[in-house]
């Protein structure tokens, strides 16, 4: 338990370092775009390659893909029901924010610190399903409510999914695993070295993106959104945690996965469909802080059970 607490303290330290470096103008928030590209396209895929190479494909791992997809659709329905009477712009913004979560950037460094490669394997499979929700369902919802039309462009929705390097890496390594194939040792050794940079870079990036600007007029909407997101997430998470009690890592993934921060991709969709981008960015930042605290509390709870 002492090592677990120490990992969280180290993680907080790196996040604060990123924030301080931004405040004293050694780094700029715009530098985060470059770091994010490195994390998503280089260090995260390297971590996935190393972690999944020796993975034994089990029913519980595969089930996480479908759990994440069902979770996304269930949360979209909850979001629609909760905000059905809101103004069209607010309704669309809320509904697109509710289903998707940030796994690769936010969860992986913490999961790696707490549960090691077994945790990465489980959350990686969860992220496969989550990618379908983030790049497919959330994109569709953002466009649908912005345009006020049922027109759905399949190519626009699926295109980003198959341009996502982490998603393609998941597909590649899972296919290798199914056919019992392995990458050459030199490739794995190189990926091992690169993957070591994923945790510190991802945490530093979170610090760069922290932004505490908040207008009081946003508070009712943000408060309701947080209640819907975390209330439903905790209820469903604890339900599956007890149902999957015979499969500890599966239970842990469901519990933590449902209370992860809102996906940063929502900011891109807000720009694309002319929602209030600043509110979306503020919500993503708030959920990063709240989810970090909740993960620390829930992981402590799990450690004692």
TrEMBL record:
Top-rank lineage group of the source organism: Bacteria
Primary location group: membrane
Location in or out of the cell: Membrane
Keywords: Cell membrane, Membrane, Transmembrane, Transmembrane helix, Transport
TM segment ranges: 6-22, 34-52, 58-81, 93-116, 128-146, 167-187, 193-214, 226-244, 250-271, 283-304
Xref: InterPro entries: Mem_transp_PIN-like
Name of this chain's protein: AEC family transporter
Membrane topology: Multi-pass membrane protein
